[in-house]
Amino acid sequence: MSVTSERAYSGTMDAPPFLTGQFLLAMPGIGDPRFERAVIAMCAHDEDGALGIGLGRTLSDIGFHALLKQLDIDPGVAPDCRIHAGGPVEPQRGFIIHSRDWGGEGSIDVAGRWTLSATLDILRAIAEGKGPERWIAALGYAGWGAGQLEQEMKRHGWFTTAGDEALLFKSDVGARWEDGFRGAGVDPRLLALESGTA
């Protein structure tokens, strides 16, 4: 998939709404428990499909140090932070979403907003204190085939918002969903009230 193409979702059907570099926020009552209150950083979206990393919740059974040790990497100076549940696809596959001040082989610039890396090099760099200034670790991803996300967007299951770095790197995971809506000028309490009347 090409990660460089980007177009804001306009709600019109005359052009494909590419969402690379934006966030998907699950609407209340999305209908899939795996995506309730989901916040997904869209890292690739084009005619062939889409890939995003979930940032709305963390895993309870593994921390960053345990992950590094499983990969025979000394944690060094890396913080023992929580790992995000990136999505239901390939839940054993790791990703780091990070600031653009670090890049390695296979790193992908996401619309000039953040970088996605999925190699051992970035884990070693973080452990050695030579990695990016800001980063988030995740296992798994959310994936859509060609046209699948566009169909979901028509059913109003998702809300899109700009790829704000503050939402990515400064917002607490427990508040990220609400923060995403508030940043777009939407009161999430009103959404929650409306979801019970459907």
From TrEMBL:
One of its GO terms (cellular component) is cytosol. Pfam families: DUF179. Belongs to the UPF0301 (AlgH) family. This is UPF0301 protein SAMN06295910_2425. It comes from Allosphingosinicella indica. The lineage of its organism: Bacteria, Pseudomonadati, Pseudomonadota, Alphaproteobacteria, Sphingomonadales.
